[in-house]
Design brief:
Layout lengths: L11 E3 L10 E2 L9 E11 L1 H10 L4 H15 L11 E10 L12 E4 L8 E10 L4 E11 L4 E3 L6 H8 L3 H9 L5 E5 L4 H14 L4 E6 L2 H10 L4 E4 L5 H11 L5 E6 L7 H6 L1 E9 L6 H10 L5 E4 L7 H11 L1 H11 L1
Helix pairs in contact: 3-11, 4-5, 4-10
């Protein structure tokens, strides 16, 4: 009998001594140990940076994407993109609960995991379909959740795929709720994406009438969407990698003050300095994007003599699932858009 670890190290194959997220390979054998929950998986929600990378690498070909995803999971025992190192989350029904797991859930409950697929033991029997527009992959398979893993039972008042789409990024709007203050200027890079819309709404709630929310998008349709939804005070249509142009436009909109808080939720690399430069000295930069390079951010900020507090996008903060699902409940416009886009 293996010595069981609450963090799941008993599933690590190599290298020994690391936690499952950092491991190159983990054991995904569909057996439920005493400190685990076993899940019959229905849908994977691949995180945006990972899905974008896989889609581009496979020329948007669904058959090639299926092959790549199956190969990754077979090799690693988990869905962890070897390029972005990120994962996503899943929806499925609880198949078994180990005797040492203390939780309110029961066998048969439909749940969404709130820990990354990059640390979740996963075995895929079949990929049924891939939705290229919403990053959801329908499968038949089995996953394991460790006793320290968090999850949410799917509420009866919301569609399960809607919940999956929203909870995949629930850490972002919840962190915005903590960071943004009344009167702040909040700059959101990637404001029309899934996490961007939720962050924009939450930022508007926090900054109030005296504050300002500035969104950055790179497509005219996205700008129109933000205008239609009324989530930003100003919307910039620019390439997030064009650092100086973005900086100049944000400076104009803020009369040189720049942003108090900047949120980066885009799924492409090389936008670190755009986020940093658009933020005032002693402001806050929050990198939720999994495409972020710590090296580029840290050394880049130093290189332009920018004194900002930089935060890595921790996908967990207290009550993050409730905060995000409540946005869908209280804002019909966002709810209906997410239903149209992700369900």
């Amino acid at each position: 009998m293996k010595k069981l670890c609450p963090f799941g190290t008993h599933r690590v194959i190599e290298p020994i001594g690391v936690l499952p997220q950092a491991a190159d390979k983990i054991d995904a054998t569909p057996v439920c140990y005493d400190n685990e929950i076993m899940i019959d998986v229905d849908v994977l929600n691949i995180d945006s940076a990972s899905f974008h990378q896989i889609k581009e690498a496979c020329d948007h070909d669904e058959t090639k994407m299926k092959t790549m995803i199956l190969s990754i999971v077979k090799e690693k025992g988990k869905m962890q993109n070897p390029v972005t190192k990120s994962g996503g989350m899943l929806i499925g029904k609880i198949k078994a609960i180990g005797k040492d797991v203390k939780h309110h859930a029961k066998v048969g409950d439909l749940i969404a995991t709130l820990v990354s697929l990059s640390l979740t033991p996963l075995m895929i029997d079949d990929i049924i379909s891939i939705n290229l527009s919403n990053e959801q992959v329908k499968i038949k398979g089995t996953a394991i959740l460790f006793e320290t893993g968090i999850f949410e039972v799917i509420p009866s008042d919301l569609d399960q795929k809607l919940v999956l789409a929203a909870l995949d990024v629930c850490g972002a709007p919840a962190q915005v709720k903590k960071l943004a203050k009344p009167g702040d200027t909040v700059f959101i890079i990637g404001a029309a994406g899934k996490s961007g819309l939720l962050c924009s709404y939450q930022a508007k709630q926090m900054v109030g009438a005296k504050g300002k929310v500035i969104g950055l998008v790179n497509e005219e349709a996205q700008k129109s969407l933000l205008s239609e939804l009324g989530l930003c005070d100003d919307v910039l249509l620019l390439d997030a990698k064009n650092t100086l142009k973005v900086y100049e436009e944000v400076s104009k909109l803020t009369k040189g003050h720049l942003a108090d808080v900047s949120i980066n939720v885009v799924n492409v690399p090389n936008t670190e300095m755009t986020t940093i430069l658009a933020t005032k000295d002693e402001g806050i930069v929050y990198f939720f994007s999994m495409a972020t390079s710590f090296t580029k951010a840290a050394l880049g900020a130093e290189g332009v003599k920018k004194d900002v507090t930089m935060m890595i996008g921790n996908g967990y903060t207290k009550n993050h699932a409730k905060i995000t699902l409540d946005i869908l409940r209280e804002n019909k416009v966002i709810h209906d858009y997410f239903m149209k886009r992700y369900v």
